[in-house]
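Could someone model pyridoxal-5'-phosphate with this protein?
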Amino acid sequence: MQQHNTLPIEIKPVKSSNIDQVDFDNLSFGNVFTDHMLTCDYVDGKWQNPVIEPYGTITISPGARVLHYGQAIFEGMKAYRDEQDDIWLFRPEENFLRFNKSSVRLAIPEVPREVFFEGLLALLNLDKNWCPKDYGDSLYIRPFVFGSQVGVSAAPSSSYKFMILLCPVKAYYKGDIKVLVAEHYSRAANGGVGAAKAAGNYGAQFYPTNLAKESGYDQIIWTDDCSHHYLEEAGTMNVFFRINDTLITAPTSDRILDGVTRKSVIALAQRDGLPVEVRKITVSELIDAAKNKSLKEIFGAGTAAVISPVSGFGYKNEYYDLPKVEDSYAKRMKKSLLDIQHNKAEDTFGWTLKV
Ligand SMILES: *Cc1c(COP(=O)(O)O)cnc(C)c1O
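Reply:
Sure, complex below.
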């Protein structure tokens, strides 16, 4: 992408890169950061100019609002390297729009487009040699913003910090996962913050997910908070069900995050002529389909893992094993997405953006 800089971005480069100290074959997700990070402060009612500086600790007052009231949201996106060593972003506009949508919900001021995109591109240009090349590997991009004002009165912060971090990551695959259908706990509620990428949504999920892990599951399939009859998300991913040959996923709502991977899977399925239905699906429909063997697949969809196949699910002390499907939709969708992301397949949708 041609960069038209309209913003002065102060760049303080590292004296020497840390890249040689990183074992790129053994990266664990999100633990290694590139040389630089971007910071942009909101003070006196406006966003200041972004600064790119060496990655490192920041100081924060123990009275900072975010530590008390959780005013924080984030995004997750990826950059991929192609055979010609060009770097590509995947649908970054979607992440930018969702970033600000999440911010609005948490009463955080929206980040201007130039700060987000010019900042991100300048940071990527500086650290692009950190982007791994192997198929499925990527540079994970973590933009986030939090309330930094000091003072523990319960009100929105008057100052904020917007930051972007970059992490080289391996293709994420931990084997097929077992999921437990939620009967008591909820991830989100009508009128709540489930549709925002609010930091606290994740904090609230850890305890019930730990309980599920103690019972031998990897993740929870979240159901609606009111009746627990409707299947909504899998862990921190959107969820798809394949019944016979039809792919089904719930419509987005206050309780369901509008995932970029989800909407890309729907578009790819439609392009390929696969039957796809965006509609509510109930636990009892799932159990019936598992019993009569029309349930072929369940998979999660999200940026981190791209597609996460499910091997079976639990509900009310019963475990339902899923069949091993040759040529699964999960595999097919993952390949279609990664091929476009790595610029190996023609991007007929105009989803990718060259850095
Ligand atoms: C981030 C997220 C997703 C996946 O969204 P993508 O844009 O595909 O990464 C799904 N559900 C929840 C709750 C999320 O936070």
